[in-house]
Amino acid sequence: MRRRHFLAAAALVAAATAVTTVVAQRADDREPVRRPTTARQAPPAGEEMMGPGPGTRLESVLVRPGRVYVRDVWRVGRFECRPWNADADTPKGWLRINALLARVEQHPDDKGAGVEIVLEDEADDRTFIFDSEQIRDLRDGLTALSAASDRLREAQPGSRRHAVFTLNGLEIGMNPRRTGGYLAPLGPDERSLGLSPDNFADLRRALEAARDLLTREGSKQEQ
Question: Is the pTM of this model over 0.85?
Answer without folding.
Answer: no
